[in-house]
Design goal:
Layout (H helix, E strand, L loop, with lengths): L2 H11 L9 H6 L5 E5 L4 E2 L8 E7 L2 E4 L5 E5 L4 E2 L13 E4 L3 E7 H10 L1 H8 L2 H14 L22 E2 L5 H11 L3 E6 L2 E7 H9 L20 E2 L4 H11 L3 E6 L2 E7 H5 L6 H10 L3 H8 L2 H10 L4 H27 L6 E5 L1 H4 L11 E5 L8 H17 L17 E3 H13 L3 H10 L3 E4 L4 H15 L1 H11 L24 E2 H19 L7 H11 L4 H27 L7 E2 L6 H24 L7
Parallel strand pairs: 9-10, 12-13, 16-17
Antiparallel strand pairs: 1-8, 2-7, 3-6, 3-8, 4-5, 4-7, 10-11, 13-14, 15-16, 15-18, 19-20
Helix pairs in contact: 3-4, 5-22, 5-23, 8-10, 8-13, 10-13, 12-13, 12-22, 13-15, 16-17, 16-18, 19-20, 20-21, 20-22, 20-23, 21-22, 22-23
Protein name: CBS domain-containing protein
Organism: Thiocapsa rosea
InterPro entries: CBS_dom, CBS_dom_sf, cNMP-bd_dom_sf, Diverse_CBS-Domain, DUF294_put_nucleoTrafse_sb-bd, GlnD_Uridyltrans_N, RmlC-like_jellyroll
Amino acid sequence: MNIELIEIRDFLASHPPFAQLPQETLERLPQRLSVRYFRRGTPFPPENADPPCVYLLRRGAVELRDANGELVGKLAEGDLCDMICRPTPEGGRFFGNTSEDTLVYALPCAELADLRERHAAFAEHFDQSISSRLRKALDIIVDAPAAGTGLMTVQIGNMINRTPIVANPETSIREAAQVMSEHRVSSLLIMEGDRLAGMITDRDLRSRCVAVGLSTDRPVREIMTEKLQTAQIDTLGFQALITMTRLNVHHLPVLDGARVAGLISTTDLTRFQSANAVYLVGDIHRATSIETLVQISSKIPELQVHLINGGATANHVGQAISAITDAITQRLIVLAEADLGSPPVPYAWIVGGSQARREQSSHSDQDNALLIADHAKPDDDAYFAALAKIVNDGLDACGFVYCPGDVMASNPKWRQPLRIWHKYFVNWILKPEPMSLMLANVFFDLRAVHDPDNLFADLQERVLERCKANRIFVAYMVANALKYRPPLGFFRNIVLIQGGDHDHTFDIKHKGIVPVVDLARIYALSGGLPETNTIERLSAAAEHGTLSKDGAANLTDAIELIGTLRMRHQANQLGHGKKADNFLSPDELSPLERGHLKDAFLLINTMQESLGQRYQAGRFA
């Protein structure tokens, strides 16, 4: 084989789907290709080509447009244009032009059909839709880590190794304690017939009975916890771990439908997971000083690396780290109140941004605010200003740096009574100016992490009703969201960052994650839905009807793929002692991963266009 054919073979071998072909086929394939050159501005794919061909771009660039002339995609080096060989092209027929002088390898459609017939792995690329390829790619990336994934794949029903130990509500506390001691268990399910009525733990016996001098002859119903978080038997171990971490509980009743199947504990889970967020959260709630919290928070980057190496997706990592941030915030509030005394009026500590969405990576910046009861007096602000300073300074010391835009409770503007917060939202919704839209991206993702008097629920309910009823506001949100487009041609230097510290990279957070976060927020607000997590918003929007089920599934796969690649990039940096960032070089990805990432960007772009047309977003840009 001459040098030119070897170069073609090596190029094919490094680009999907040709990389799926066996070596002997790759050796012969270059001789079946033709090399064609197109000057800039030439229609592409070429009209009336004989024979019709599939084209692989070797150099140059092509812009593809739909029947209305709208740009729908860009092709660059290594991209495949096979629309002529498809009898019913996915998404309809596109038309294009070369935007640069372009060199391609052309393979007749008949030859392509022969390869597809003889090589199943190669054929899958063409037989599957973009969404199917994306789902498979995510599975491959998540399954890629070595053995030890345990909690990522095991269902909690498979961890239950004994019949649940139970008692009825009228059992005396003494008898319940004897049963627990006899069976050597730290918890007891309380059953009323076939119904789960509650649960008691060793901690309940200590804090609700012994510590308060309650007679052990009293019925166990007086000390049991009635409102229980449960999980179904097919829940994955890691999902159970996240739930227990977020709620700071160590036991989780497991149900098979409505039937009680057993109980899962942190001890059961830690048999599968050597370092986990539950223990960190437990340590946080026992911390007596900010210095201790700082020491605990230093373990968060290590946790992120461990989770990614164990096969966790971006959603898994985000849920775990956000649960830890919540716990640190709650503990700082406890420490602040211990120092300052009881608050003069009820209040809620509310968080925004990635913490509110439970999508944090290690040591994000902080976005938070204070919602204070309306009957607060002006003099009460001194207390809340002091509390906000303690918590904000503590979070910063723990690595959750001050918000660059000063969206924090220490800023008096974001430390207001309920009536003022309501006015804020009314103004943002009725007057969607650029500043209002920017703030909406933070404050329409709010979640309360400390709210003993449930103040936030009233604000959230009224805000969602106003959003749902105001189509013009949603249209402005759509127009603002469409400013953040995926880098469809990110393989090309012209769309990568040039020069500086991030030369030859792209911002995977703002170019990949943010567009989906924005879309999910809009689907949720337009339906008046209370969810804040992006994946939960997509699912809820599909159930509500503001988004198709296929659209929700595709966007979920897209953000999981992009987010997991981002988390893997950060884990690699942290593992090498570097500071984590969002600037990913295409060189870090295999050709197959670059192809899958482009599939994700194409899906996001399609959903953006669809939403823009629905709300005629161009009128509000």
